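Case 473 in the screening queue. Each case pairs one protein sequence with one candidate compound; here the compound is 2-acetamido-2-deoxy-beta-D-glucopyranose. For every case the pipeline is the same: read the inputs, emit a complex structure as tokens, and attach any notable structural observations.

Predict complex for case 473.
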Amino acid sequence: MELCPQSRQCYAVLKLLAIFVILGSLIDSRLVESREVENLQATEYSAINCRKHSAVLTDFGGVGDGKTSNTKAFKSAIEHLSKYASDGGAQLIVPPGKWLTGSFNLTSHFTLYLHKDAVILGSQDEADYPVVPPLPSYGVGRDAPDGRFASLIFGTNLTDVVVTGNNGTINGQGRPWWTKFKAKQLNYTRPYLLELMFSDQIQISNLTFIDSPSWNIHPIYCSNVIVKWLTILAPVDVPNTDGVNPDSCTNTLIEDCYIVSGDDCIAVKSGWDQYGIDVGMPTKQLAIRRLTCISPDSATVALGSEMSGGIQDVRVEDVTAIDTQSGVRIKTAIGRGGYVKDIFVRNMRMKTMYYVFWMTGAYGSHPGGKFDPKALPNITGINYKDMVAENVTYTARLDGIKNDPFTGICISNATITLAEKAKELQWNCTDISGVTSRVTPKPCAALPEKEIDCPYPEDKLPIEKVQLKTCSA
Ligand SMILES: *[C@@H]1O[C@H](CO)[C@@H](O)[C@H](O)[C@H]1NC(C)=O
Ligand SMILES: *[C@@H]1O[C@H](CO)[C@@H](O)[C@H](O)[C@H]1NC(C)=O
Ligand SMILES: *[C@@H]1O[C@H](CO)[C@@H](O)[C@H](O)[C@H]1NC(C)=O
Ligand SMILES: *[C@@H]1O[C@H](CO)[C@@H](O)[C@H](O)[C@H]1NC(C)=O
Ligand SMILES: *[C@@H]1O[C@H](CO)[C@@H](O)[C@H](O)[C@H]1NC(C)=O
Ligand SMILES: *[C@@H]1O[C@H](CO)[C@@H](O)[C@H](O)[C@H]1NC(C)=O
Ligand SMILES: *[C@@H]1O[C@H](CO)[C@@H](O)[C@H](O)[C@H]1NC(C)=O
Ligand SMILES: *[C@@H]1O[C@H](CO)[C@@H](O)[C@H](O)[C@H]1NC(C)=O
Ligand SMILES: *[C@@H]1O[C@H](CO)[C@@H](O)[C@H](O)[C@H]1NC(C)=O
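Case 473 output:
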């Protein structure tokens, strides 16, 4: 497709050639061919890679009435299209309609494209979600001992996967899951909306995710991940509906997202206690920018509490938080091991916050058996600059760990305006050290004033340099 990026005629010729190339194959391929021609009237979208082959869900028996199950249609479409992985890849178009489905698996060199009026509806029937083993870096802590329901859209050991659209919707219909979770009626961990494991070159963009049973987007053990132009919505009072959870991933970019959640808007993780220490896969090289977050009971960006594989080189900038419990928060505990280091935050605007700065060294939560009380986390090099917050209840609560202090905290140019019913003690600091500059209200003694501008890296991460191509659907 890059041969003629602009010209429609040239594009048409290439398409015809593509048709001749596949003419020799079986009936199935004709579905794909007809779509090649229709494509000429298509919408354009940006992606890490365009695909040579294209098909529509209805070609595989899909029915978009909101009642008929499309699990088989997705499965046979993607199985069929996986044959083109080594021949330019394929895209599956989900047309306007309501497409009820259970869990299905993605494939490599593949794009799932949702039309703006396409809604994928997650089945509310547990039997539509296969049970998969607990994650190696979590053991049986986060996950129920017998396993976890596979996510609605799942993929493992893949390369080059795009899930996109022109703002189509993935609706998890989470209500019965939230109810059963609260009533302790589930034998397995709730499904996420989208999870990719052990995968490389991922893009998730231009979609709306609503009402996930639990977390929305969970890349784990992945590299080179782009998440952008998403709207993620859940009621603010439902459990664990985190927006995006980069977990043991390298080189990730999350930008231009609007998230309203009952839990953290973004939760950066890397495994739990001894399980996470043993797997030893950090989340590193992560950039988050132009995020808008509303999360009255949780963080804009949480680092941890599962951080046992380490979290390093996180850059957060140009973020807005409204009616949110905290800003960029650190959560850890004795027994987690691992580290959180080289964290850089700049230009956050916050309104109606409980805490602006919050670090917790006593998060607790050790449900798994494998917990070593001698495994202390190393929290160091945490930098915030150019922060503005209004209507704040509590500026900073910074609790390190006794004999394992959080060090190298730097806060510069931060203007915090307090709420009418603000706490009397605005800075509560224990077992931490660092410096501050031009910060109001006046910081605690553990963070003395020093004329300093806290650092922010000048280089770009490799993922920030990726150029998207113009594709059509
Ligand atoms: C998806 O793949 C996983 C891992 O290979 C497997 O356990 C699961 O059953 C598959 N899901 C479906 C719907 O086939
Ligand atoms: C997926 O990749 C992981 C890590 O490389 C490997 O341990 C696992 O066996 C792979 N699984 C499959 C189904 O190929
Ligand atoms: C994706 O979202 C961006 C930002 O809103 C927009 O500019 C672009 O046109 C969208 N792409 C599609 C295919 O809708
Ligand atoms: C996408 O759809 C959601 C939900 O309808 C809406 O809130 C959002 O503004 C839309 N985004 C764009 C870029 O059109
Ligand atoms: C959960 O497990 C218990 C004990 O094995 C069983 O009685 C119950 O039916 C299971 N519940 C569901 C919803 O599968
Ligand atoms: C200020 O914050 C309080 C909660 O602390 C909230 O009830 C109130 O509406 C906020 N005021 C404004 C002007 O946003
Ligand atoms: C924590 O990490 C820093 C920076 O990598 C290192 O200098 C320091 O020795 C570590 N501290 C502990 C207690 O391991
Ligand atoms: C302080 O932070 C504010 C808000 O981000 C910014 O507008 C201002 O330019 C910063 N001041 C300096 C001296 O960098
Ligand atoms: C300050 O922090 C300490 C240690 O975490 C805690 O015990 C105490 O209750 C806090 N004080 C206030 C006034 O919040």
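Case 473 observations:
- Residues 274 and 370 are 5 Å apart (CA to CA).
- Residues 322-473 form one domain.
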